[in-house]
Amino acid sequence: MWGTEWSRYEVIKQDTPRSVPQMVGSVHATDPEHALLIARHVFVRRPSAYALFVAPAEAFFHVSQEGLKDLKPEEEGEEEAYWVFAKRSHRRSMVYGDLVGRFLAKGPRGAVLEALLQAPGVAFWAVPERLVVGTEPTPEVVESWFAPAKDKTYRLQSYYGLITAKEVDRA
Question: Source organism's superkingdom (predicted)?
Answer without folding.
Answer: Bacteria
